[in-house]
From TrEMBL:
Organism, as annotated: Parabacteroides acidifaciens
Tagged with keyword RNA-binding: yes
Keyword set, alphabetical order: Methyltransferase, RNA-binding, Transferase
Gene Ontology molecular functions: RNA binding; rRNA (guanine-N2-)-methyltransferase activity; rRNA (guanine-N7-)-methyltransferase activity
InterPro entries, alphabetized: DNA_methylase_N6_adenine_CS, RlmKL-like_Mtase, RlmKL-like_Mtase_CS, RlmL_1st, SAM-dependent_MTases_sf, THUMP_dom
Protein name listed in UniProt: RNA methyltransferase
CDD domains registered for this protein in UniProt: THUMP_AdoMetMT
Amino acid sequence: MSETFEMVAKTLYGLEEILAGELLSLGANDIQIGRRMVSFTGDKEVLYKANFCCRTALRILKPIYHFKAKDADTVYKEVKKVKWENYISLDKTFAIDSVIYSEDFNHSKFVAYRTKDAIVDYFMEKEQKRPSVRVNNPDLYINIHISHNDCTLSIDSSGESLHKRGYRVDQTEAPLNEVLAAGMILKTGWKGESNFVDPMCGSGTLLIEAAMIALNIAPGVHRKEFAFEKWIDFDQELFDRIYNDESQEREFTFKCYGADISPAAIEIAEKNIRSAGLMKYIDLKVQPFQQCAEAPNPGIMVTNPPYGERISSRDLLGLYNMIGERIKHVFTGYKVWILSYKDECFDKIGLKPSEKMKLMNGSLECEYRCYDIFEGKNKDYKKALNEEGEARPSGFERPDVAGKHSFERRPDRPSDRSSDRPSRPNFKTDRLDRPDRRFAAAHAEDDSERAPFVPGKRYFGDDRADGRPARKDFVAKRPVKKRFKDDEVFGDKKKFGDKKFGDRKFGDKKFGNQSFKKPFKRRDDDDLED
């Protein structure tokens, strides 16, 4: 039986659950989801497959030593305890990468420097020779991760980031990361059951990743090498078997359609598609989005319009207004997925999204939104959904990875902490202290039997609409603020018409000598406070 060991897959924020599902399908065990990472266990075959087959992984690390340290000298002593001859020989080169989240370590490069010293001194004391350090394309990539005082020493099995698939020969001004593109498509649940459309395709990354997903071609098939191919224990026969296995590939009977306003972008996209060997499955044309008059059916649209950050636009808001108009009139029956950065851009689309999620595009915290495009009114569409008993007709279900497999989350490191914290109560919507809500909660046995609330109706005895007796007379009224007439005076000083209360003025938002930015607001004594 093959030896199993711990591994860590790094990814982009928002793609952790998709990556966990990919690892599960490859045979990984003990899967735990963290922040921008997924930890798991497996053997050498799982390690090779994770690098070769995972579309949403950036790199796969193999931890070899865990320890605690408060300073760089302790790191040096602990790193020297590792039996480095099991991982590197004297004729090989290595490089150190460090990631630090700790107040005790102020400089990540100094930690990397002391880690290098420990490895070099280990071999000098034992062999009187030392391996060389090489920054670019070394034989062994070593990673040290420090969170507070917890240190993890790992070897990197990927080398170059896995988003570098190997098919891209040219790119436009702001190309989409391949891992993000694959994650966006997998988030929709699409796997080739319909046509795929990107009307602003740029260098064609979304189209290529979509075609590879539809055909189930492994994303690592175009890479020249992986770091684990230089390891001492590399199994060439095992990796060749994984590389040449085409049993999981499938037919794609539809097509991917791409367009862009720039002829130069279409030319670059064609080069990349040809490099990936996918010209048969992708159609390209130079066309502005506003001239799009028809869409192939059935289909799904996924696109990444300009944000106005790296690619400028003369009329950015006008662009998004046009996008909303086109998808509403041309892409009927589609699910349209759009990744963008600014809320005001989404507002200009003028449609209500059915789904929203956060994704990181480089350093930008973007939002990924889905729009169900249908004919007629929203009310009629929802009624049709209920009659058919389907959650999403004519679309595709998102994979419920976490719900189905119940992956565990890891809160043990600051960099790995889950953002799924329990939300604080919303006292504006969660309270039951208003008369109408108290009444409904007191007399309804469950939500299905709750009688309709009629403002102004008097409820007593058996006059309830559902025949149940009320506890006491109650006139159902919505709470209103008390109003005073201009001539209504209380005592000699209190006058509410001109908003005065003794020397304290409310009209100009003052309370004694203190000014308030917001007007004074009454609060009931039994209100809960956040």
